[in-house]
Amino acid sequence: MARRNDHRPEELKALTLKLVDEFLQNEPAHQLSLRKAAKLVGYSAGTLINLFGSYSYLLLAVNGETMDRLADKLQQAIEAASSPKQKLVAMAHAYQVFALTHPHHWRLVFEHRLAEGEAIPEWQQQRIDRLLLLVAGCVAPIYPDIDDDTLQLRVRTIWASVHGIVQLTLEDKLFGSPGVDGGKLIDDLLENCLPVGSQT
User: Fold this and answer.
1) CA dist list (Å): 89 to 61, 141, 185
2) Which domains does the chain have, with CATH numbers?
3) Residue 132 CA: distances (Å) to CA of 1, 35, 93, 137, 180
4) How far from chain centre, in Å, is Cα 97?
5) At residue 179, does pLDDT exceed 70?
6) How far apart are CA 60 and CA 89, in angstroms?
7) pTM of structure
8) How far apart are CA 121 and CA 59, in angstroms?
9) Backbone phi, then psi, for 176, in 5-degree steps?
10) In principle, which of 58, 65, 114, 129 could form an S-S bond with 52, CB 3.0–4.6 Å?
11) Contact 87, 140 (CB under 8 A)
């Protein structure tokens, strides 16, 4: 087992996040615990508590890295498309691909809860804001005449709809006939079900 002084704090934090990330590639978060995370890195549970503040904040730090990777994938999808509507569709598909490729990471982002009354740290809120800004950047040109409050509502409505499709796809609860998949539902949603304008 590694000794306490084998790594500097930032090195140990990076190592912990790396090993937990590798764990989530194959196992769901509910199979992890503080004790198991400590065993992965070869340090005591107390050392990880001192490093992250709590097991909950360790998971939040993992979520932060996941959201960074997700945002990068969405940004790449946006940059590869041309019109605002195509960017929105490409981003929605990239979101689905990410969830299907990293299901345990994706679930942890949405299932993890801080203790009641505990505020989301600023560094995590910035990640949430970045994702919403990516969506808003695609939606705003489609609706050039709406005010900011309406735009923010529309951004959340569209993305909540995409998120719901992705979640049902991931849980295999679309209840459709063979051949119906989340990708087709996303296309139908953005093409027909929401008035996303005439830009193609």
Assistant:
1) 29, 14, 11
2) 6-53 (1.10.10), 61-193 (1.10.357.10)
3) 42, 35, 16, 9, 28
4) 12
5) no
6) 29
7) 0.89
8) 13
9) -105, 170
10) 58
11) no
Write out the two tokens for 166.
Answer: 């992705």
- Single-letter code of the amino acid located at 94: A
By CB atoms closer than 10 A (0-12, 13-18, 19+), residue 94 is buried
Cα 33 from chain centre: 21
**Which is nearest to 123 in space by CA: 65, 180, 186?**
65
Place of tokens 């209840």: 175
Token output for 153: 């509502």
pLDDT in tens, 44-86: 999 999 999 999 999 999 999 999 999 999 999 999 999 999 9
